[in-house]
Amino acid sequence: MGIPQENSQIITPKKHEQIIKENAIKDGKWKLQADVVVIGSGAGGGVAAAELSKAGWKVILIEEGSYFTPAQFNSDEFISQARLYRDAGFIVSEDQTISILQGRTVGGSTTINWQTSLYPPIYVTDEWEKRFGWKPVSREVMDPFVSEVHERLGVHDVPNELVNANNNVLRVGGKKLGLNPQILKNNNRGCIGLGRCGLGCPINAKQSAFLTWIPDAISNGATVISNMKAIKIEDGSMKRVYAEFMPDAYEQAPQVHIESLEISAPVVIVSAGAIEGPALLQRSSLGNDWVGKNLKVHPTSTIFGRFDQEIKMFQGPPQSIVIKDGHNQNGTGYGYWLEAAPYRPTLASALLPFVGKQQFGVVKNYKNLNAGIVLVRDGAAGQADASVKWSFGRRKVYFNLTKEDGQNMLRGLKALAEITVAAGAKELIFPFSRMEKPYQVEKNANFDWVLQESIQSGDLSVGSAHPHGSIQSASTEEMGAVGLNLELYGHKNIFVMDASIYPTGLSVNPQITTMSLVLRAARQLAQEKKQRTEL
After folding, report:
1. Where is the Glucose-methanol-choline oxidoreductase C-terminal domain positioned along the sequence (predicted)?
2. CATH number of the domain that 336 lies in?
3. Mean pLDDT of the 365-394 span
4. Total count of domains within the chain
5. Which of 411, 440, 464 is the last residue of a domain?
């Protein structure tokens, strides 16, 4: 599929010299005005910009990352992670307790995610309503918005012929154990299973925000500017957003370029993600004490299985099978779910708990390795032990796996080990640092011992690709940072519209839920144009 014609209007560094001449910009500082500034271009910002521009708002959207066409997507992991991911793919917590993956490019994480398209179960949305006063958000109530998002993104069941060997381990092993493996929905049009989703789809099959909501916004008159990092939001009847130029890591910046932006608008929408969003608000001295607290990440851990036959986990759609049997432990609404991960050699090597000769010995069999992952709905104790803080000029992430969430992680790892063995694995590589070599599978192997493993930092390897919930929404400011309309408590016309708003662990991959809820919130805001923008 071709690149939308509208995307040629995205203001990239290559256009700066022209913009400077046309607007008589002096000292590299460009001053702009709009009805609304949207900060971030992912699942939240892209939808908000599209919806508000459609309603006649003058929208300016800024994105810290670069804009790439599919011809620029590179299968080299090092270059791709440096260009497409925040912190080159490794947002590491202060105590090195977790490493988090998050996109940083036009389209945000939708450009590099694995297409998994889910909406949370009823016991999750019920908790949001009962504990935090959310208006009804069950799948049934939200169906008009979810269906609209599905249609825009081409969401459909993964065809059976595209279920790869990596995912098939979950299906085969799960069925043998009497579990319920399910086909996942992916968001694409014309996927042929190249398996490069995490590095950017080179054929425009995956319907990322830069192929859907962003061109929708531009066609309705929105201005989209890449490579501009929001530094500060200044409150007042007329807000001011200050942003600074952020050059691409692998491309020389033009000699003549715009150094900074000063955008004035009565309305600001923060869609900078659950890591950078709280940091931006904190350094702007905006919001209450909930900003940055209760960060949720869906703590994730991996088991590699070695098979006699080739798996080639890097081929085919990354995620096509899910097992949710452990989703709701003892009726608590908390637990784990199992998916596959298409780790390429660099990331796979980083996740192996071995060094030296032992690591090389495992990597030598890379094509025969599968990777299953356990994802935990964090916050089983009532709140997650994680946060984001802007401190001494730097954004810092803190994370500790709670006892309750750790127990669910171990339950998930036990189930994943049993499934992988049932599918035929001959060796397992657990995420426990004490294990210095692969676990050799024996007949009638019993994995009850996994439940006794340590969950302490350094003993268990934990990662994440789903940061969310650090600017949570609730019906009162005693319980959250933003109201039910996603407006920041204490600050008129400053909104948060992205995955930061969830008051509990989401329990599913965030893209569809975020787009659906932001679509509803932005549509409501769009109807308030006169009262919001006329000062």
Report:
1. 399-516
2. 3.30.410
3. 97
4. 2
5. 464
Residue type for position 144 = P
φ/ψ of 128, rounded to 5, equals -60, -40
In a domain? residue 3: no
Query: Where in the sequence is the domain holding 226, given as residue range(s)?
Result: 10-21+28-156+197-294+468-534
DSSP annotation of 254 reads P
C-alpha dist (Å) from residue 444 to 418, 438, 447, 450, 451: 10, 17, 10, 15, 18
Q: Are residues 266 and 392 in the same domain?
A: no
270-328: pLDDT as tens digits = 999 999 999 999 999 999 999 999 999 999 999 999 999 999 999 999 999 999 999 99
Cα separations (Å) of 84 from 103, 105, 180, 322?
Answer: 6, 5, 35, 26
Q: Using CA atoms, how far apart are residues 270 and 252, in angstroms rounded to an integer?
A: 29
State how far the alpha carbon of 401 is from the alpha carbons of 378, 417, 475, in Å: 8, 21, 28
d(Cα 488, Cα 198) in Å, to the nearest integer?
32
354 occurs within a structural domain: yes
**pLDDT of 1 strictly over 70:** no
User: What DSSP element (H or E) covers 471?
Assistant: none
**Which secondary structure element, helix H or strand E, spans residue 315, and what is its range?**
none
In a domain, 286, yes or no: yes
Mean pLDDT over residues 501-510, rounded? Answer: 98
Q: Give the domain-ending residue among 432, 464, 496.
A: 464
| Torsion, CA 354, CA 359, CA 363, CA 365, rounded to 10 | -100
Report how far apart, in Å, the C-alpha atoms of 210 and of each of 4, 271, 401, 511 are.
Answer: 9, 15, 34, 14
The neighbour count for residue 433, using CB atoms within 10 Å, is 14
The mean of the pLDDT values for the chain is: 97
Same domain for 129 and 204:
yes
The CA distance from 260 to 412, in Å, is 47
Predicted TM-score (pTM) of this structure: 0.97
Closest CA to 106 of 78, 150, 73, 137: 73
72 shares a domain with 16: yes
Q: Say yes or no: 410 and 521 in one domain.
A: no
